[in-house]
Recover the amino acids of this structure.
C-alpha cells in the first residue's frame, strides 16, 4: 500500500452515472467483519461496470488481511471493514502496509461518520472511506473512480424488451421506444434484433440491409468498431439497426456467451442500445437478461401472460439482485369480448412496476 496514493473521490449514491466506464481486469479482495458487509461486496460484482473484475470476500477485517498477506501476494485493491472502535485503525493500516505491495490500493469501510478520520485516512494513503451502511453501487462508484481510465470507452445504456407470451408485442414496443428515445433526446440509438430467424426490425424500419447481427455472431471473428460500423444499417436520423437475417437456412443454436462481446461493443458505440429479445428460454437469453441495464416485460392482460410474466419477473430478479428490477408494459388492453386482468392488478400480482398500458387498436 503506497502511502502517497492520491485519494479516490467515489460518488456514494446508488445511481450509475451517464457515461459510466467499464473497469479493467483487476482483482479485489474484501475483508469483512459482518455478513451484511460481505453481502454488499458480493452484490457489487453484478454491476455491469464490474464485468471483468474478480472479487472475493473473506472474514476477519484488517487482522484477517494482515494475516493473509504475510504469505500471499496482494491484489490490485483491498477493501477493509474497520471495527467500530477506530482508535487503532491507523496503526493497523501501518501493519497492513508492511505486508502489501506498493501498488495495492485500499478502500476502508466503517461506521464512523467523522470528517477528521476521513482526512487522516486519506493523508495516510487510503484511497477512499465509505460510511456504512452503504450500497453495492456506492462501492462500485468508488472503485470506478480509482481504476477506470479517462480514456476508457463510456458504456451505453442497454434496454431489453421481452414478451411474456408470443404475440404480446414486445418487438413492436421495443422498436417504437427506440424511435421515441432518438427523437426526444436526439441521441443515437441502436436497435439489436436478437430474434435471428423471425425478427421484424428490418421490416418495421423499412430496411433490408445486406449485413446484420447474423454476420457478427456467425462470422467467427472478434467484433470490433470497424466491423460493427459495417454491419449496422442507418434506419433514420439517430436510429441505427443491427438486423436479424430472418431466414431459416440454418439452425440458431448459440453458446451462453455468444452475444456478450457483441453487446459490449454496441455499448461502446452507442449511448442507448435497445435489445429486441425473442420469446424463448435458453442459456444465451438468460445470460443476456442478467447482464443488461433495464428489462421491460411486455404482456397482454390475460391469465397465460400473467403466469409467464410472473415466472419471468421472479427469475430475472433472482439472476440480478443488485440491478434494476424489471418493469411492465401491458399491451393490447380492451380487446372486445376478452376477459382481462386490470393493469394495476396484473402489475401487483407479478410485483413489477407498471410503466405503460397500451390499448388495443383494431
Amino acid at each position: 500500500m503506497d502511502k502517497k496514493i492520491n485519494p479516490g473521490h467515489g460518488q456514494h449514491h446508488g445511481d450509475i452515472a451517464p457515461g459510466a466506464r467499464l473497469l479493467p481486469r483487476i482483482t479485489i479482495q474484501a475483508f469483512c467483519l459482518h455478513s451484511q458487509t460481505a453481502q454488499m461486496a458480493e452484490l457489487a460484482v453484478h454491476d455491469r461496470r464490474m464485468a471483468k473484475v474478480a472479487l472475493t470476500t473473506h472474514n476477519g477485517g484488517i487482522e484477517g488481511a494482515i494475516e493473509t498477506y504475510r504469505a500471499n501476494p496482494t491484489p490490485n485493491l483491498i477493501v477493509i471493514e474497520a471495527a467500530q472502535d477506530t482508535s487503532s485503525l491507523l496503526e493497523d493500516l501501518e501493519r497492513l502496509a508492511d505486508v502489501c505491495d506498493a501498488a495495492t490500493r485500499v478502500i476502508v469501510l466503517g461506521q464512523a461518520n467523522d470528517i477528521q478520520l476521513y482526512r487522516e485516512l486519506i493523508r495516510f494513503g487510503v484511497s477512499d472511506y465509505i460510511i456504512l451502511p452503504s450500497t453495492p453501487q456506492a462501492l462500485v462508484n468508488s472503485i470506478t473512480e480509482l481504476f477506470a481510465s479517462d480514456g476508457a470507452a463510456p458504456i451505453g445504456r442497454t434496454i431489453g424488451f421481452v414478451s411474456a407470451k408470443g404475440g404480446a408485442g414486445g418487438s413492436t414496443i421495443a422498436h417504437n421506444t427506440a424511435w421515441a428515445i432518438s427523437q426526444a433526446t436526439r441521441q443515437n440509438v441502436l436497435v439489436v434484433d436478437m430474434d435471428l430467424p423471425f425478427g421484424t426490425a428490418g421490416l418495421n424500419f423499412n430496411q433490408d440491409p445486406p449485413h446484420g447481427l447474423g454476420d457478427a455472431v456467425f462470422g467467427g471473428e472478434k467484433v470490433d468498431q470497424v466491423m460493427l460500423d459495417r454491419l449496422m444499417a442507418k434506419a433514420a436520423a439517430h436510429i441505427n439497426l443491427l438486423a436479424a437475417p430472418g431466414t431459416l437456412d440454418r439452425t440458431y443454436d448459440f453458446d451462453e456467451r455468444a452475444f456478450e462481446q457483441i453487446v459490449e461493443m454496441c455499448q461502446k458505440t452507442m449511448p442507448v442500445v435497445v435489445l429486441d429479445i425473442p420469446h424463448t428460454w435458453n442459456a444465451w437469453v438468460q445470460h443476456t437478461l442478467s447482464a443488461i441495464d433495464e428489462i421491460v416485460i411486455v404482456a397482454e392482460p390475460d391469465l397465460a401472460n400473467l403466469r409467464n410474466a410472473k415466472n419471468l419477473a421472479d427469475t430475472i430478479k433472482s439472476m440480478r439482485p443488485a440491478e434494476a428490477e424489471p418493469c411492465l408494459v401491458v399491451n393490447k388492453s380492451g380487446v372486445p369480448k376478452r376477459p382481462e386482468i386490470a393493469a394495476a392488478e396484473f402489475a401487483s400480482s407479478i410485483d413489477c412496476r407498471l410503466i405503460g398500458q397500451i390499448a388495443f387498436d383494431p
About this structure: Residues 303-319 form the longest helix (17 residues).
